[in-house]
Specification:
This protein is α/β, with parallel strands linked by helices. It is 56% helix and 10% strand. The longest helix has 17 residues, at 75-91.
Length: 134
């Protein structure tokens, strides 16, 4: 059984009831997979709700948090982030700060990142990803 971290874009698809994402997330929950939301993804969602309020989606997100809690970066994750940054810097690749932190969080916690923005993460070594929109 895999353990997952949800990127903000996947949560948005879930809140929009995109059929594949909705089904795969519900299946993963039903088989007992550990699924977390990195604090960075939670921030991205909440800032969006603040900028463009949507009470129905905000309420649905709060319900999702009952099954998929928000998880903070710990010291190991922060150390992993410095390594990811150094690796990317040496290869002359750039990745957005939030994406780099989410990837480091996944690597440090042995989580598969669920995202439909896989191109944002392809240059990060050893990161397991799945795109549930397909």
């Amino acid at each position: 059984m895999d353990n997952y971290a949800l990127d903000a874009n996947i949560i948005i698809h879930y809140l929009n009831k995109q059929p594949n994402v909705f089904r795969k997330l519900r299946e993963a929950i039903s088989v007992g997979s550990d699924i977390v939301i990195p604090k960075m993804a939670d921030y991205e969602l909440r800032r969006g709700f603040r900028a463009k309020p949507n009470p129905k989606k905000e309420a649905a997100y709060e319900i999702l948090l009952e099954d998929c809690p928000v998880s903070e970066m710990d010291a190991i994750s922060w150390e992993q982030a410095t390594q990811v940054y150094a690796d990317l810097y040496q290869k002359r690749f750039t990745v957005g700060e939030m994406d780099m932190l989410i990837a480091a969080f996944c690597l440090a916690n042995n989580l598969t990142l669920v995202t439909n923005n896989t191109s944002d993460f392809v240059n990060i070594d050893n990161l397991n990803m799945e795109d549930w929109t397909k």
